[in-house]
Design a protein that fits this description.
homodimer; 327 residues; alpha/beta; 4-stranded mixed β-sheet; globular
């Protein structure tokens, strides 16, 4: 049995807890939280909820710590610190800062002899893997990543900060015409505006100026100004009834050419359609935790990413079983 | 530079030759053929065409031999024999016989200290990888593989053996309604007939009984009897003009569930749309040849499959570049 700890118990941590139950070779040992443990109710009977600072005393009881904090301020501190004590997996997703995060975590994990897997999930994660496989197979080609349809937490937060807004949710939507153009093999150059639209569902406060809210959202730099954005005003009841979920997904497409005169076109497409973004991310984290435990047992320490993991290490099945049934 | 040999020079071998030209870190050293070398014209100026039996004298000049023979009778003999002398890659695609092929090749490669990569391509190969990733991420789920639309060489050969047939081509076509049902997340049970149809383009000999040909094709066991098959009679000119290509492709879909009560559904889909089946397969072989060279340099010998290869080994880019640009 691989003994797992969960560090941070929000949507992602709860997803990891559920995913562990779906894997017979894993058991949840403890959940660590910065909140008062007495106030944290978890779903797994008999498992301890501990204070975050108690983790350091449990390094012999946990094979892999899955760190479920946020990328902005939690993971840059937590992952290097915990990699001194545990094999760890995190979902660090600030793409531009991955190299520096990697270096910090690598130093800690090499010193401790632990295996630390960063930026695991679907983007970064499974989407990255598909960008890598696609570009290795078809070097003369072009990559496209589309996100959605799905809820962007960052854009939803931005809407809710607008004056006069009581609540709101934002969906990122890939543009069908752009997807079709990519799939045709024409390898188009696409602007930000051509690839995605942004769809907002907004609950205005009583008496708020809706025209002003709409204008403010649509002109918000970085978040909305570069996109075709639609703003729909709805009631809180409608928002709660129809927009409570956290669906997401997207597409990674490689369009490339082969042949003596590059006369043949090939399209590789990977897509996800997810009812729950945090639960799917959690499921990816859990199978990479299995790989982290195995790689550490074989002496592969230091910081790793999805690019470094032999796929067979993700499965609970033996090499012979995999070759017989899945190859 | 990684020095490559091509063993067998048909459609696949020519595809490998073209793919090597697309990869700056590789060079073609020699092509080996069972035909008289003087009769074999290749596309790369200055590269030697050698007799198959001369390969044994060139083990110090070639880093990886890419074996481009057929799975029925060539590869079961060639891959174990060549793995005694070279790192090798093959595209052995008889799924049911992979375990015994693996064992034979593993014995040879372990004895020689070489790295032998078998069953590389898209199915087995990239489709297998996606079946593995999908089932590791979503253990409560179901796998679906669809092939096509594309030319099946085996079925085309079967048509051409029918009495009265001068020429013919067969396309395997996935059934749209079945694909839609799988994508809906309903996890349907599908029969062979429900998943694919078979479309035949047949040139009849002068005076042949077309009704009898059609009947014979549609009732052929294993090949057509279990499918809804359509037979179109066309002229040789039309066959040559419209059906000369070797396109193929397909879909691997994982439909799975997560959540405390498995209430959330996720769909992972990987698809290929290929203008040239052998050229795409060749492109996959070439990037796995890079991995074979690297794994051997790091002491990982024996038989390997796509499941054993850390994805980063497929790319000519460094780990730091990959993390910066693709993660």
């Amino acid at each position: 049995m691989i003994r797992i700890g969960i560090y941070g118990y929000g949507n992602l941590g709860r997803g990891v807890e559920n995913a562990i139950r779906q894997n017979d070779d894993m058991e949840l040992v403890a959940v660590f939280s910065r909140r008062d443990p007495a106030s944290v109710k978890i779903n797994t009977p008999g498992v301890a909820v501990c204070r975050a600072e108690d983790a350091e005393n449990m390094s012999d009881k946990i094979d892999v710590m899955i760190i479920c904090g946020g990328s902005a301020t939690d993971l840059p501190v937590q992952t290097p610190a915990l990699a001194k004590l545990f094999n760890v997996v995190d979902s660090f997703d600030t793409h531009a800062k991955i190299p520096e995060h990697f270096d910090r975590v690598d130093e800690a994990a090499k010193a401790s002899g632990k295996t630390a897997m960063i930026s695991v999930g679907w983007d970064p994660g499974m989407f990255s893997l598909n960008r890598l496989y696609g570009s290795a197979i078809l070097p003369d080609g072009k990559d496209y990543t589309f996100w959605g349809k799905g809820v962007s937490q960052g854009h939803s937060d931005a809407i809710r900060r607008v004056d006069g807004v009581a609540d709101g949710k934002q969906y990122t939507v890939p543009v069908q015409a752009a997807l079709d153009a990519v799939r045709s093999g024409s390898a188009p150059e696409l602007t930000t505006r051509e690839k995605h639209t942004r769809e907002c569902f907004v609950v205005a406060k009583d008496g708020a100026d809706k025209a002003k809210i709409e204008q403010e959202i649509k002109s918000m730099p970085n978040y909305f100004a570069d996109y075709d954005t639609t703003v729909n005003f709805i009631s809180q009841e409608e928002l709660d009834a129809n927009h409570a979920g956290i669906p997401h997904g997207g597409f990674v497409i490689r369009s490339g050419k082969t042949g003596a005169d590059l006369e043949n076109t090939h399209i590789i497409e990977y897509s996800l359609k997810l009812d729950s973004n945090p639960e799917f991310t959690a499921s990816v984290l859990v199978c990479f935790a299995r790989a982290a435990a195995r790689m550490n047992a074989e002496g592969m320490s230091g910081c790793k990413t999805v690019f470094d993991v032999p796929p067979a290490y993700l499965s609970s099945k033996s090499g012979a079983e995999l070759r017989k049934n899945l190859l």
